[in-house]
User: Fold these one by one.
Assistant:
Number 1:
Amino acid sequence: MVISGREVLPLVEGGKGISVSNGESAGAWVAAGAVGTASAINADSYNRQGDPIKQVYHGKTRRKRQEELIAYAIRGGIAQAQIAHETSGGKGPLLLNFLWEAGGTASILQAILEGAKGLVHGIVCGAGMPFRLAEITSRYKVYYYPIISSARAFNVLWKRAYHKYADWLGGVVYEDPWLAGGHNGLSNYETPDSPQDPFSRVRDLRAVMRETGLGETPIFMAGGLWFLRDWQDWIGNKELGPIAFQFGTRTILTQESPVSEKWKKKLLSLKEGDVLLNRFSPTGFYSSAVSNRFLAELMERNKRQVRFSRQPTNEHIAALPVGARGRLAYLTPDDKARADDWTAKGFTEAMKTPESTLIFVTPEKSAEILTDQRDCMGFLSSCNFSIWAQNEHGSTGKKADPRSFCIQKTLQSIAHDGELEDNLMFSGHNAYKFATDPFYDNGFIPSVQQLVDRLQTGD
């Protein structure tokens, strides 16, 4: 298949954010005759000794810290493009992955394309509605690949912006909202417990694309992929047109993958059901991650939750002092009894949420939450956890939500050898197949070339 102007195998490395897919892994995919995707989301840059530069923030305000984050991201994105170019021997196509809802994405994207001219052949971008993506990439004569989860979403993007830049639309990434790892594109029209058939959804997407003259533009199927033999009815299917296959979770377990050895070993031990779909992310999106202490604490934190009123009502009559000033919140008698029980067990700090509820946490967890909220560096364009937003006010205008977490902190930690149990570990729901697929018997970890060769057999 021709992707970004180059004839390659229709096998694509999924772009996984914050240093989980990087220039080394992407370059190896390109060298294997497939498509490499390096993450340009808060990526690593390096000192003269070749060691990753630790991202430390000195700004006194969130806006200043976001400026530092943007500078790190630009240097990191250019560095990863250069590494991928060298690793692949100058071949292509190399794609860079962006999160549109990350802070400063438009300026970071432009600066990386300027600083890595000739090295990057495509930009993959999702999470939100990246209307400006086409206009920016086409200026640099680089193909763009929007990530969408429905025909409806692509139709909106096309009519509002992309029809003006049709020549540089390299493909459309359909990321299944029920099967993919990381953030999932479930809309208000869909529910997490009612998965839909990806074939019919991609067929609907192709129908919309054909109406706009895009019948031969590749669609990347992403999410839920493991064995290509399970998708043989898609290959050469006239209803679907040209289909490439994007592998996310399975590409983490290679020799060139930058994740830690303990992360790779963890993947080999997962069982079915160990990956959970949840809605704790400060983006507001659903996401899929490995069940561990980090997710367990968030689930328990959210269970220790009661509704309150600022004034006594017919139902809310039991007074509870909250915070350092002891301001009264009013609960139902039953909820007051539950709150007293949690307090007796050490969850003595009641923290208010934007939905007029209280959650109960230990003093240590409360201090950690407040510190993380204060230290926010504007990683997202809009953050439910810290209330940061990259608008003129620097705020969402809502109350900070202690039921969530600092996503930049935990993703940076786990990508740089942090404790697996105490950080967010994104994964697709098929990760349990590492333990059952004979290819990985006895803890075997393939090179990218070995994995690409294996995929072509159907296994």
Number 2:
Amino acid sequence: MTDSTFPKISVVTVSYNQGQFIEKNIESVLSQGYPNFEHIIVDGGSTDSTLDILRKYPHLKWTSAKDDGQSDALNKGFSRATGDIIAWLNSDDWYAEGAFHVIAEALKDYPVVLGKAAQTDKEGNVVTIVENPPRSFYDLARYWIPYAWVAQTSVFFRRSLLEEVRRSDGNYLDQDLFFTMDLDLWFRMAMRYPFVRYIDQVLSFFRIYDENKTGARPQATQRECSRVYRRHMNGLNPTERQLSYIMPMREPSEISKETFKSLTKQTCIDFDIFIIDYAADREMSKFVHEFSLDLSEAIPQITVRYAKAALPNEFSAFTTGVQKAVSPIVGFLQPGDTLDENASHRALHQFALDTVGLMIPTIQGGMAQLNTFFQQSGELNLPGFLTSSYFYPNIYARRLALLELETFRHPNSPAHSLKELLLRLIYKGWSIQGSDTVIVHPTTRNYSMEVSQWQTERDRIILEVLKTLKREFEADPFGLTRAKARDPRPLLESLSHITGVL
């Protein structure tokens, strides 16, 4: 007997020749003891024992006919669902006892909830407990790290949210996706409502074995994840070009013409030039703006943009440029810097890997031999970099990664800003890479002020950077799970001898 005081839960299961598993699936729903539910099974025309099993359960709402794959079958199931809450349970998976009462309570005032899940082998023996912790849209994006994957069987959502994120073609799921239709749905949901409502108990069990899709084709699954990742990352803002060169400018200068000349000689011109005005007075800002307009007329094949920095400071100008850029990749330049003609092509090639959050190019001459900071494995030598006297990188970075971390948070201290940014990027799960050839020729610059600050404040800066990382680790709801894959504590301990115990 149903009870209207309980929100109705619709369980959608798609199946094809899963007779060996589906009865456990059905029984796990029945045994919830929840008074208001429906179980919809969309079968793809099974030829094994599946249909005989389905006929044994009169409460089921089921059909059996050929479909166009899992996404098509799920779309049909979601369309037939009449519940307030949607639950999606694959035919070889099952629910833990008492899950429905808990999730119904959790969804009273928030549209999506997730909980722990147990991964099992084919026989149903538990292999591991998947924490499935709360996460932001940005956390969801790092599909290449095991802890970022969402265990789909323990995600429940209100029907109203499913309708809110419905695709423009009228479907709930993308029928062109074979493995990752759920990831695409989570991105659409998380963009509106972060996955922050959490139930700290195992709600479901899911099998991973050689014959099921994810178990049989892990590399193909990862490649499809990349497709989904790119569509949503590029969809965060309008993309006009693939790369934006951000150049802070406080006054027009002759030396900047050399920079623009080298940009016009790039073999790849899928970029724009973004001049960020950080002049201290209004009159000089007017000159900088006029300069950018003149430049736009002089090189019509390249878009030139202009914006005013939030503060009259170079590193603040970089941060403003990142916030306003309309490209997924950004590169930082100074007036007078020049680039090898293949620099843009090489940078974009590096970021063809979704995992790369930042690239430190090899820079010719001076104090910027950053290739010495990279070990043979390609990993950044963190102690070496953190204690070095390097201040100004001509970095290339993924805009998404910089937005999440607010780019440079200490604009008056280049060393502090740069070192904190790189450590936080690594902690969040992004890869930092170097280039194996010289691509940037920096302008001559007097670093005496930065050198003096570093010599007098090095220990304080390093301590503050490490404390920041430690605070973020302890405050981040995703941090405890992240720690199992990328624990920052050994790094903190290995570096703490520089300034004493944190």
Number 3:
Amino acid sequence: MAATVTRTQTGVRIESSLLKVLKGLAEYTNLTLGDLIEGIVLHAFEGKAPFSTETCEVIAQLKSVYGCNLTAADSHKLAEND
């Protein structure tokens, strides 16, 4: 049985090319952006990889298309343009 949840609308700021990749991935996986992010976070909270090898290949393609060169090493080190 599926868990029943309450969702909250939020205005999250996120790097532009990363958002494009996430939106493309959501479309590829036939999920809403919110459902995709929830899945990623729930996997991360359990220390599990959220994506299959095939999906990682799609992510690499989307990153190339949208010019997203960010990696985990960039996390918490990004500076905004003025």
Number 4:
Amino acid sequence: MIKTRNTGLLIRAIGLSLFVLLLPVFAFAATEGAVEMLDLTVHWAGILSLIIFVLAYSLVIGEEVIHLRKSKPVIIAAGLIWVLAAIAFLQVGDTERAHVAIRHDLLEFVELFLFLLAAMTYINTMEERGVFDVLRVWLVTQGFSLRKIFWVTGGLAFVMSPLADNLTTAMLMATVVVAVGGTNTRFVALACINIVVAANAGGAFSPFGDITTLMVWQKGIVQFQEFFALFLPSVVNWLVTAVILGFVVSKEQPEPITDHAELQHGAWVVVGLFILTIAMAITMHNVLHLPPVVGMMTGLGFLKLFGYYLARRDVRIALGHELQLVESSALGVTATHEGEKQHSSQVFDIYHNLQRAEWDTLMFFYGVIMCVGGLGAFGYLAVGSELMYEGLGATQANVIVGFASAIVDNIPVMFAVLEMSPDMSQGQWLLVTLTAGVGGSLLAVGSAAGVAVMGTAKGVYTFFAHLKWSWAILLGYIASIATHFAVNASLFT
């Protein structure tokens, strides 16, 4: 297992290092003829910033081996890179550019941070109210054959990820296949691959399905309804791989499983509020031209208000129970204290669900955005844009973005593309959204969904188990791109 993880980490580290360490060489060639444009790509501070970023991201890639939270190195790297950027600008007599640039990147992060915080709190509340447990128990107790479980979990992963995000969806479905598959490691591995591909594909056609699509939407490059042009390419991406894998999935009937789960009071109200919150985010962005985060935070306020009602209800129930104990027990005050101790932990607390947000992930986003923004301030993103989008062309560059997402990570890659802001047609922007979203499926370590499922099905769904079927996933990747060009040809003009 350690060898498998190390191999995946090594591939990602090599890919990142080669790409970033070669940038100064490309930058020198690109700036030889530049006269009017302020370019610090060959400045000592710029080169040092690149080295710092490579070292920090190498620690991120090795998180599972060294057990260092991924947010720590990138936060430190972000601070150091911006200090170097400020020094470099001061040396050329510019006292304002670093200040303006960092405020721009901070605004990008704050919008993403608050949006995700609201969404994560809703997901955690639905989990606490038992919504996901009920779904899981229903799936494992239906007596489906292994092949049917394969298709049901894949299908649910595809349709749930546009709303619940691909990471949460993949983990939930993976627990189902692990419970049903048991010792049938072949089935578990194949079903987990199917889930990862389906979750990433489903997240690619929705602003809520993946961090990269959310960034593109919040940037205002692609409107909410325009993402649905990627629905058919996303379906093709999943189905091509799923059909191939489905041929080798057994039809046998697994051992029956008995389990039970109940929805907590207010569960469906929370689901309804979540749908309302999404609708508000869309409406505020499309109709009122406000940032989507305004709608999400307003919806979070509604959830907190409903949480107040749930907490007051739980207190009333606890007090009623204590009164019954006092009336029926000869222990008097002692029984009351025991009842209080028993029910105090059951009082709903919305802030507990807010605290359970993925804070390390949120802080990692801060570090990545600020690091990439800092490198952009030196001019490296402009160089990358010239090399990729002007040198290779938009189509080739956007296809490469998908492979880079599998090797490095789709978040810094997509943020870099957004900061480059190449002049592309709507079809090309949708293409890079598609490739960044589904490209991570090519490797088990290429997406958050894949990494999460590796943790859920430890020792069964591994880097090499996934790599064995990467050719089938690649066929789906190619087919989805071809489908996008075929069905959305009018968007490329």
